[in-house]
Design a protein that fits this description.
With about 325 residues, the chain is mainly α. The chain is globular. It starts with 10 loop residues before the first strand and ends in a 10-residue tail after the last helix. The relative contact order is 0.15.
């Protein structure tokens, strides 16, 4: 593809999501509420795990606290900029800001993929290898594993940002999306993007497919182990422990696969699908993990001074 002109872009304009003008105020307030509750809900979980002595040394809740940090970060990167779409006037994003948004979204998003896999492995060890669990997954090891997910996520985000922005962008500058993401930005490049689209699909596809496969295999073993539990109450508690994680993995992975594993497509449903990992999932995580996890609820009661008793996972 030939360049439209010789001047490289210094800013982009995000078109946002299409909406009826009469709903402008409602949508602004709605996403403001979503963002506020996301930050407060995840902050509450983070504080609960940090303060409660029975939680902050256990790998499952260390991972949950890190998940809250990731959710707060992803929401902060995307939602405030989305809200600007519901205000008057054109508000461009600088070229460097677009690079940073794409990098941090894929950095935190891929870190979350790796963390979900690590959480599934933790549940596998706790349920299928209970006697060896304290050796195979203790607090120090869980922090080390979690650090590895951050390093891997930062590398993945850097690769995606470099692949996307090493191309020339010389016009037009209107990104038909609500944030700077790879498929939407690549459509504006003044060069052939076939290789980029292929590499992006393979790169993200490997991450999504490998993480999802490991999670699936972990839960196959977990389900088989749970079915061997004779006591109905024991099976119920085991399923309850894993239910929240399975729910959020499904809500997170399905939209990501829909968006990134179809190179060269421009489906209008992409924007709706992208709302799940960027705003809906970070909002739902605290509520699902709090409402379905008895220990978190008991820890909250202890923090606010209410009655509570210890429980076993």
């Amino acid at each position: 593809m030939e360049r439209v002109n010789s001047t490289l872009l210094t800013e982009f304009i995000l078109t946002g999501i299409p909406y009826p003008l009469r709903l402008r105020t409602f949508l602004f307030v709605f996403f403001l509420l979503i963002y506020t509750l996301t930050q407060l809900g995840n902050l509450l979980i983070l504080i609960t795990v940090w303060v409660d002595k029975q939680l902050h040394t256990r790998p499952m809740y260390i991972f949950l606290a890190i998940l809250s940090i990731l959710d707060m970060g992803i929401s902060t990167i995307i939602v405030p900029r989305l809200m600007m779409n519901f205000t008057l006037g054109v508000k461009p994003i600088p070229f460097g800001g677009c690079v940073a948004q794409l990098y941090f979204y894929h950095f935190l998003g891929s870190t979350q993929c790796f963390l979900y896999t690590l959480m599934a492995y933790d549940r596998y060890l706790a349920i299928c290898r209970p006697l060896r669990y304290p050796v195979l997954m203790n607090a120090k090891l869980s922090i080390l594993f979690a650090a590895g997910t951050w390093v891997a996520g930062s590398i993945h985000g850097a690769v995606q940002a470099i692949l996307t922005f090493h191309l020339p962008y010389c016009g037009p500058n209107q990104v038909d999306y609500f944030f700077c993401d790879i498929p939407a930005v690549l459509r504006l490049a003044c060069a052939d993007t076939t290789v980029n689209e292929l590499v992006t699909s393979v790169n993200i596809g490997v991450v999504v497919a490998s993480c999802f496969s490991l999670i699936f295999l972990s839960y196959v073993q977990i389900i088989l182990a749970i079915l061997r539990i004779r006591m109905a109450d024991g099976r119920r508690r085991a399923f309850s422990t894993c239910g929240a994680h399975v729910t959020m993995v499904t809500v997170y992975y399905v939209p990501c696969a829909f968006i990134y594993l179809r190179p060269g497509t421009n489906n209008p449903l992409d924007g709706a699908a992208a709302l799940f990992p960027t705003s809906i999932t970070p909002f739902l995580n605290p509520f699902i993990y709090t409402l379905r996890n008895q220990e978190v609820k008991l820890a909250l009661k202890r923090i606010i001074g209410g009655p509570g008793t210890n429980s076993d996972v």
